[in-house]
UniProtKB/TrEMBL annotation:
UniProt key word Cell membrane: yes
Organism: Nothobranchius furzeri
Major location category of this protein: membrane
Domain Receptor ligand binding region: from-to ranges: 9-259
Keywords: Cell membrane, G-protein coupled receptor, Glycoprotein, Membrane, Receptor, Signal, Transducer, Transmembrane, Transmembrane helix
Gene Ontology terms, MF aspect: G protein-coupled receptor activity
Subcellular locations according to the entry: Cell membrane
Transmembrane segments: none
InterPro entries reported in the protein's UniProt record: ANF_lig-bd_rcpt, GPCR_3, GPCR_3_Ca_sens_rcpt-rel, Peripla_BP_I
The protein, known as: Receptor ligand binding region domain-containing protein
A GO CC term attached to the entry: plasma membrane
Membrane topology, from the record: Multi-pass membrane protein
């Protein structure tokens, strides 16, 4: 990505490694760097007096970088880490069994897990199978709010877990927009067509005339998403959607400012857009740019504030 210098704004990439402006000069994000979360986790552990802990991480940039910052912050807070192990959903079961064995042999009763949901899910289910419960879990946002992680089996292992999550938000009109969506009003949206056929157990032409079993009815087009419960219209957790929303508007406002202040748009480059995005005043060619004022700020260190 270092060689792709076009402007990029991520709604979910939290790795602290992306804050390196030498390697990623055109990268921005609308979610905080994990430096903040890792430091906060260390302070949280210290706040509760848990000074002897174990550490589990995903074997990825997200987990490795996040845990590295946590370990450094924990040392400064006077928190000792008994062990630090990595998990990966692509690992063999034997690898997970080794991690379980480390946890079983440890004396610490608190586990700080900087991992994503799928990686940790496998470990927790193996811990449940071996009746390893009663531990206090402290989690990163990668799994602490992962909806598929919330099962009865996992609850028996991680009940009482505490951690941090991305800030939730209410996006006016989003629920209504999604619930009013129809294949007929969004032509070419094959994802919505598939969702429609699955939810209402019907099919759209030309599938209706092509080897479809008799018991599969044709979609009438009068079905409505208001009548069903589906994750497609569930906006109870709009944290990542809100980050996409902010990223989109940040770019839109930056471009609007450029169009307002540049007399020759042929002189506008990606660097103008980047300076505009961060609210920094520049002069180049025929353009004189004023600072962008928004309620959401992207700073030059690539950390969303």
């Amino acid at each position: 990505m270092a060689f792709l210098l076009f402007l990029k704004i991520s709604h979910s990439a939290t790795c602290a490694c992306l804050s390196n402006r030498q390697e990623y000069p055109s990268f921005f994000r609308t979610i905080p760097s994990d430096v903040y979360q890792s430091t906060a986790l260390a302070k949280l552990v210290k706040h509760f007096g848990w000074t002897w802990v174990g550490a589990v991480r995903s074997n990825s940039d997200y987990g490795n970088d996040g845990m590295a910052v946590f370990l450094e912050a924990a040392t400064k807070e006077g928190v000792c880490v008994e062990y630090s192990v990595a998990v990966d959903r692509t690992n063999l079961k034997m690898d997970y069994l080794e991690v379980v064995d480390v946890i079983k042999r440890s004396t610490s009763k608190v586990i700080v897990a900087f991992a994503d949901g799928p990686d940790l899910d496998i470990l927790v289910k193996e811990l449940h199978a071996q009746n390893v419960t009663g531990l206090q879990w402290v989690g990163s946002e990668g799994w602490i709010t992962y909806r598929y992680f919330a099962s009865e089996i996992n609850y028996a292992v991680v009940q009482g877990a505490v951690g941090f999550a991305a800030t939730n938000a209410h996006i006016p009109g989003l629920k209504e927009f999604l619930a009013n969506s129809r294949p007929s009003t969004t032509p070419g949206n094959q994802g919505l067509v598939k969702l429609w056929e699955t939810l209402f157990r019907c099919t759209f032409p030309p599938q209706t005339n092509m080897n479809v079993k008799d018991h599969v009815a044709a979609c009438s087009g009068k079905e409505t998403l208001w009548d069903v419960n589906t994750q497609f219209t569930d906006v109870s957790d709009a944290s990542l959607m809100n980050n996409v929303y902010k990223a989109t508007y940040a770019v839109a406002h930056a471009l609007e400012m450029l169009f307002s202040w540049c007399s020759l748009m042929s002189l506008v480059t990606q660097w103008h857009a980047m300076h505009s995005l961060t609210g920094r005043k520049i002069k180049r060619g025929m353009c004189s740019l004023k600072p962008l004022v928004t309620t959401m700020l992207l700073d030059h260190k690539v950390s969303s504030l």
